[in-house]
Design a protein that fits this description.
By secondary structure, this protein is mainly alpha-helical. It is built from 2 helices and no strands. The chain is rod-shaped and about 70 Å long.
């Protein structure tokens, strides 16, 4: 019985770890997407004339 409880605990902790790993991957992917969007936005702001970019930032 105790060994079954240990196996259940290991399986539970492994499931938790895989969930955490998925969450970490999701966060990393979101950060990468955010960086891409920031680079594109910076390119857009630098190519657009200055008055327009000022009105956009407000």
């Amino acid at each position: 019985m105790s060994s079954f409880r240990i196996v259940k605990f290991i399986a539970y902790s492994y499931a938790q770890w895989s969930d955490a790993r998925c969450a970490i991957l999701l966060v990393v992917r979101n950060i990468a997407l955010y960086d891409q969007a920031r680079v594109v936005a910076a390119m857009f702001v630098t190519t657009v004339p200055l008055p327009l970019s000022h009105s956009c930032s407000k």
